[in-house]
Task: structure prediction
Amino acid sequence: MKTIAKTFAAAALIAVSTFTMVAGKPVGDNSKKAVVNLSTADLAIDHYLAVMTEGQSAGVEQLFTADFNQKVHAAEAKINSRSEVISFLKKQKGEQLNCKTSTTIVEQSSDFMVAKVTQQFEGFTKTDLITLVSDGGNWKVSQSINTYK
Result:
């Protein structure tokens, strides 16, 4: 009887540890194949901030619409395509930016949102006006307009 109890206890311990390993996400995991929950606009904004400020690249492809573009208004205006932005973000490899970030919802409806993301760095401020749309049950960023002061 003691042998059966020990066997069940060992099996339960192995099962629990296996489920924990499967459910847990390794620290620093930037897998390209990761699926990110973007079922709400708030989750999409949170993931956008993690990608932009923490260098996370997991699920970056699913964050942007197919026709996404980024407009940067600085000394020289520039437009970056979806593929250019994704390529740049994947190269960050977990690099975190040292800035204070705040988010304000400018406009919101059931399938559309405009949010203002302000990043305060030492010496300058980056303001990012992002447009999000509901796309097949997931929220995605369709446009980003950046200005610097």
Q: What stands out?
A: The mean pLDDT is 79. The helical segments are 2-23, 41-54, 60-63, 82-91. The CA atoms of residues 99 and 121 lie 5 Å apart. Residues 2-23 form the longest helix (22 residues).
